[in-house]
């Protein structure tokens, strides 16, 4: 049974058939980008986690370019932003990034004087104030969130990289022990 397109990852052949890729197809045709091994999967998870934690558009394109440059496993890299900032985690994640960035800037003594608070968001949603009137506050909040995202994204990317490297090693050892156990039972 074949899964719907929005549930499964596209295959290498399906991606290479896409017309918009045009002359970049030969870069994506490299087999090392589509064969999962410990280092390429760990690099892809780190790249996808870091880029996925940043608040900007064009994450998938950025991940593709970095995956090509660092020879990372493309399917894992492209999926990771949806894991990090999925529909259920995006609001708490960026709130934590904002709080981390504001705390860091406060500790350094360079926190912006203009900040955004819950009452400001409440006024926007209830129509008491327009988004254009909040321009400076939203811009400062965006910059503070970027600073927190860079820090939190770096920490999460390092955890993803070393976690996959260690987890893969443990899985290989477990498989080898299991294979040896089967061989000794078969004798």
Can you walk through the features of this model?
There is one protein chain. This protein has 187 residues and is mainly alpha-helical. Helix content is 67%, strand content 0%. The chain contains eight helices and no strands. It has helices at residues 12-16, 25-28, 38-52, 59-70, 74-84, 90-108, 118-125, 135-186. The longest helix has 52 residues, at 135-186. The protein is extended, with a radius of gyration of 22 Å.
Primary descriptors:
single chain; extended; 67% helix; 187 residues; mainly alpha; 8 helices
Discrete helix count: 8
Q: What is the number of strand segments?
A: 0
Q: Overall 3D geometry? A: extended
Largest sheet: none
Unreliable stretches covering 5 or more consecutive residues: none
SS strand fraction = under 5%
What class do helices, strands and sheet pairing give? mainly alpha
What is the string of helix and strand elements? HHHHHHHH
Distance between the termini: 39 Å
Helix content: 55-70%
- Computed Rg: 22 Å
Mean pLDDT across residues: 82
